[in-house]
Amino acid sequence: MNGTRNLAGFPNSIGTNAWFKNIGNSNYNALDLTLKQTSGRLTMLASYTYGKSLDDSSNLQEQVNPFNYRAEYGISAYDIKHNFVLSYSYELPVEKLFHSRSRLTQGWAISGITRFATGLPVTLASNGDNFLVYAQNNGINSVSIELPNVAPGNFDINHNPRNGQPYFNTSLFSPNSLGTQGNAE
């Protein structure tokens, strides 16, 4: 024996000892309107929701700054500000077409649902651990992610996504510097 100990099963590397605590705060406020109209064979149901959801744990940036959880409180990843849904059903007069009333000619209908809603918020992330706090396990894919840096400037939002251009000015964003937290919020 040459004086070294074989620690079988234990790798020769530095690891982490992660401790996770279930914490989170959320707040949802909304105005909900519903209208229903039945007129002969036609039934329509319309609903509109104007809402806002805020929390500190629904997006990819969960616990980016483990020293300040309150900094993570903002618009939820699933926040939809405007949501309009229209459902409709029209009973077809099949019995009149065949001049007979039976099981085969009753109960036929055309129906559908149409929805118009605003999009979900955009989540910006910088992969890696430049902040050097190893804030891992973001709840979705267990990859360390952080906020990027953002420079002042015009976002130049692209309102026509079919033109092949980026959705916004991506040159304003860069990875956070080593040892610092990104400034994008």
Overview in brief:
The protein is mainly beta. Helices cover 3% and strands 31% of the residues.
Structure notes:
The protein is mostly beta strands and 185 residues long. It folds into two domains: 26-122, no CATH class; 124-185, no CATH class. 3% of the residues lie in helices and 31% in strands. It has one helix and nine strands; from the N terminus they run ββββαβββββ. The strands form three sheets. Strands 1, 2, 3, 4 and 5 form a five-stranded antiparallel sheet that branches. Strands 6-7 form a two-stranded antiparallel sheet. It is elongated, with a radius of gyration of 27 Å. It starts with 25 loop residues before the first strand and ends in an 11-residue tail after the last strand. The model has no long low-confidence stretch (mean pLDDT 80).
Keywords:
single chain; 185 residues; mainly beta; 2 domains; five-stranded antiparallel sheet; two-stranded antiparallel sheet; 31% strand; elongated
Biggest beta sheet attributes: 5 strands, antiparallel
Structural class of the secondary elements? mainly beta
Total beta strand runs: 9
Mean pLDDT score, rounded? Answer: 80
What separation lies between the terminal Cα atoms? 58 Å
Topology record:
Layout: E1 26-39, E2 42-55, E3 74-75, E4 82-91, H1 94-98, E5 109-117, E6 126-127, E7 145-146, E8 149-150, E9 173-174
Antiparallel strand pairs: 1-2, 2-3, 2-4, 4-5, 6-7, 8-9
